[in-house]
Structure prediction request, 738 residues.
Amino acid sequence: MSTFQARKSFVRAGLSTVAILVLAACGGGSNSTGGGLGSGDLLVGVIAPFTGADAGLGPAYYSACLAAAPSINANGGVGGRKVKCQQFDTRGEPADAFPAANAMIASHSSNLMAVVGCTSDEAATVAPVIDRAHIPMFCMTGQSEFNKTSLKYFHRLVPADIFDAYAMVGSALYGPDHTPYKRAALVFGNDIGSQAFVQPATNAFTKLGGTIAINQPITLGASSYRTEVAAMLATHPDVIFTEALGSAGTYLGEVKTLNGGKMIPFIGTSATIDPTWFQQVKSAIGVNDLVANYRGVDLGYSFSGPAYTEFLTNLNAASSQFADAPKYKQRGSTLHLYDGIIMTALAMVATNSSDPKVYNSKIKEIANGVSGATVVNTYKDGVAALKAGKSIRFVGAGGENNFDQYNNSVSGYILVKYDAQGNEVRVAQLTPDQTKAISDAGGI
Amino acid sequence: MSLFQAAFGFGLVSMSVIALGAVGFTMQFGITNMINLAYGEVMISSAYVAYYINRAGVSIWIGMIAGAIFGAVFSFLLNRIVYSPFQRKGTSLLGMVIVSLAVSLMIANLLLPLVTYNSVSYQETSGSLIRMAGVILTTNQILIILLAVVVMLAIHGLLRYTRLGKAMRATAANPILARNCGIATQRVVDVVWLITGALCGLAGVVAALNSDSFAVANGAGFLITALAAAVLGGAGQPYGAMIGAVIIGLVTELSAAAWSPEYKEVVAFGILVLVMVLRPQGLLAKRGALAAAG
Prediction:
């Protein structure tokens, strides 16, 4: 190829790229006419890992959408528009997530009402892309960089990871069924998201009298961790703080083997309240050791009430589309994302607009409520109240939401364990004094 | 107990698992001229075949044989149905790599709805712990090491002392000349796919057994380690792959003991890069695939 031809090809490729970017940018902003709810199906994009090491995460979020859609569709839709769900696989890799987000926005610019998912694997990559397209998103990431985010369309219905870390420390020090643990091993993945737990847990635990026996960042997805486990056991911890999504079974199985068949108590983050995690660890160490030695932390769900009942009914019905959906009946993120989708639909009805620039801010108002707002628990009741001219506060399957100025919703933690069937069992709740002591010690 | 002694023992297990996978991979390339990126997915598919047999109450050691047979048949069919037609059309080596990558993705995505994304484990106790000179291994791990030694010796015997082995080496060195000398090269290639497929299946089951729990996503990891050992030893060189497996297996475990475990793969692959810079053909490669070590 001559220099001239090469240059010409390069220019042509450059112009094509610019044209694609311009079209994508235009597409992102042309969601509606600015008034009225429009026509045609609406779409909720579930952008998450469905393949790869974190393939267990996407189905939990997809299930949330499958449960939320019938709640809306069976009650008139959003101004008559039906809600549908579509998966966008990020493979848990930013490099795959970026084109997935762009493809989602470019191909559904006219009917994308909300995006859910965006885990710590890909949130930093996709959230700015989704925000530029002015699509409200509900991200399941605990990364601290979103604690004071400037992204207007970002919403987080779960606390930041530091609060999970504090709750784990609370479980170790104040858990009701054991003497306070004194020596903790920190075993988290060496990725940025997992490492977010380490510093706050270290600060809080050591300032409250504990010792970090070892801080062990591990490579998630490795085929074995024997040397790491031997190094950890040599420090004689009396408890392990962990998450290690995708690798917990391998690691903990080797702990049991190398420790002569005896498990060390382990405390998991709220992400370990997950049927996939339960199954993996159960198959590696056996259900009896899992039930006896595992403690976890979670947000205080009641798993009852009209919102949860409707959620559960729809989730069970969704098994015809996705057989695993009912497994997520107690998965916190599934409950929260269900609520996020319902709140978005209510915000659209409240503003009578399918323009996200109009209804985005209404989501927060419906979640937090304003003075005198009518509390509603279902989409049907919400629409009825809005039509009656009332302002509403939606308290959904995951309970109350309290968004701060950065659209982060924070709520209290409970200490939990599993029963033999993998159901969450509440063990205790941290008192306000205990919570304050840990937060002060954490100091982040 | 010294952590380094323990890590050395764990390294022996790791290198055994890697060697089983790497030798099959490198023989496939050396003799059939095919860089089969679907190798990891065949490994994990075989691991699942053994899992379902094991779940039915059959010992995993029997399941391992079934996994090896499955790997052999699956690999043979892959070559006959997918790879061979492309090769006959004269598809370039790079083109074949892309084809195998596509096959890899197809297998992974077909496997996912069948076995789901959940991690599973074999119903097999890891055996009693045996401690010797600071090395701690379970009986299963010792059996894995012995199995790898036996298989490596068998491969050595096959390549050096049998007519089939000589035919394989001749086909690897120059397939046209080998054919002109009366060697049925197509039959040799078929047998190679069966043998390396069996190694692949065996390696998949052993890797899954070694790992306590496994899932579909592990296929990619299996491939990377086998590929690294094969490249380190010299592409197409079975003995090189064995040495590559020893280096990667031991270095990953010993570096995890010496430094933070988060760097163990960095160290192992750093050595791979260093060798590639100093000796791009790999540690043992001399001239052509399966040539004498040098």
Remarks:
- Chain B touches chain A through 42 residues (CB under 8 Å).
- Chain B has one domain: 3-278.
